[in-house]
Design goal:
By secondary structure, this protein is an alpha+beta fold. It has helices at 48-63, 81-96, 99-141; strands at residues 5-8, 19-23, 32-33, 40-44. The chain has three helices and four strands. The protein has a four-stranded antiparallel sheet with strand order 1-4-2-3.
Amino acid sequence: MHSPKFQTYSPKNLVTDFQFYILSKGLNSGKPLTAPCPNSFVCICKNQQQKDFYFWLLFGLWKAKHFHQLLTGSVIPFIRIDEFKNEVAAQAEVIKEQQSEYTATVNKIKQLDEKEKNIRQQLALINDLKRAMIYRHLKSKM
């Protein structure tokens, strides 16, 4: 598997099906994103398998705060794209040696992510219900 192409995000660039975005400024630098935002990098992959591999690799590195050691800047910390590319390539080599365990872990994380989304939806519905119940009483007094 060849490494993907990393570049600074620009809205002028062509969008492909096999790309995702990585936050490049702030304390969340290195966080993979599905939608573009200012101050981000683009990871352009060759296929869906490569996209999944690098998305979840970056997710794990971000969750472990691995990119904090690469942050530069005193007011708004940021990560340089060359340092980022080198670190991702090094970590990808380490992970490729344990490919089967890594794939199993990623599948478990995907399942947990789905459960988390469901719980967030349930919490939003509960909040809406609370609001509706209170609003019913406040509306009748007006």
